[in-house]
Amino acid sequence: MRRSRSHSAVALVTCLAFGISGPVANATQAPAGSPAPKAAAAPPKPTTPTKTVAATVPPPIDGGWPRAYRTPSGGELLLHQPQVASWEGEKRMVAYAAVSYKPNGATKPELGTITIEANTKVSLEERLVRFTPLQVTEAHFDKLSREQTREAVTEIVDGIPENERVIALDRVLANVDKSQIIPKEVPGLKSDPPPIFYSTRPAILVNLDGEAIWSPIRDNDLKTAINTNWDLFLHEPTKTFYLRNEKTFLKASDLDGPWIPAGKLPKSFSALPTDDNWKEVRTALPGQQISAKNVPTVFVSRKHPDVPSKPTPLGSLVPWMR
Fold this sequence. Notes:
This protein is an alpha+beta fold. Among the domains are: 67-183, no CATH class; 203-302, no CATH class. Helix content is 13%, strand content 29%. The protein has helices spanning 5-17, 146-159, 169-173, 279-284, 313-317; strands at 67-70, 76-79, 83-88, 92-102, 110-123, 128-141, 166-168, 203-208, 214-216, 222-225, 232-235, 240-245, 248-252, 260-261, 297-302. Strands 1, 2, 3, 4, 5, 6 and 7 form a seven-stranded antiparallel β-sheet that branches. A six-stranded antiparallel β-sheet has the order 9-10-11-12-13-14, with no helix packed on it. A two-stranded parallel sheet has the order 8-15. The N and C termini lie far apart (105 Å). The relative contact order is 0.12.
C-alpha cells in the first residue's frame, strides 16, 4: 500500500528535526527501476572568523588642538590652533588664534581673537617649536569691557603652562615659506640689564606689560592699549599715538616719542562710548592746551621676562636649537 502525502511530509519534518542532512530514508517508496537518488552535498565547513585589529593612531607630537585650561582665577580657557602669519629668521613668530574664555562664575564663555608674538626655539629631532615668552599684542572680545579684556589676556598668558607652549614644526611649515627657513644655532643667553630712566625735568613713566596690546573700540577707529593703567590710544587712520596725562593730551608717531602737544583731537574721541570705561577721558575733552616747553618727558617701559624663571620638563628633555 502507498503512503499518503501527509504521512510523507510528517516523516520529512521528523528527519529534519533530528538534524539528518542526507536523503530521507523510507520517506517515500521509489518506483521500481528508477535511478537511486543522489546524495546531498555535505554542508560547508565553518570558517574561522577573521579578527579585525583597530589601527593605533599615535597622538599628535604637540599634544593636539584645541587646548583647554583652567586659569589661575578659576576661569575656563579654550585655545584653538594658532595660524602662523610670519616666522622671521625662525626666531620670532607672529600668529593669530581663536579663543573661548569663560570667567570664573560666568554662565557661558565669550569668544574672541588674539594676536600672538613669541620668540621661538626649534627642536629638529622632536620636530617641535617652542614659543616663549608668549605675548598677546592684540585682543578682541566683542562682548567684554576694557577691564574684562585686560583680565582675559592676563589669564591667557598666565594660564598656559610653560611646558605646553609648543606647536608641531610641521604645522608651522604648513603656513610659512619653507624656502626661507635655514636652521642654525646661536649660542649664548640673553642677559641685558634692566632699563634705567633719568630726567632733569618733569617726566612721566608709562608702564607697559610687554609690547602694547591693542584692543578695538566698538564703532570707533581708535584702539586702546589694555596692558597699561594709562589711557593710551592708537588712531588707526593716521597711525598716531595719543596719551592722556590728567587734563592734557599728547601725541607721537612712535611710542618712544618724541611726544608733543596733541592740539585738536580726532573726532573719534568725542565718539567714545558713554560708559564708565571712558568716563575720565570724556571728562578731559577737548583737553587743556599745553605749550611745547611744558610737555613732560615721556618714558615708555616694556617689561616682560625673556626666558622662563626656572627650567621646564620639556626644556630639560628636548635638545632645543635656535
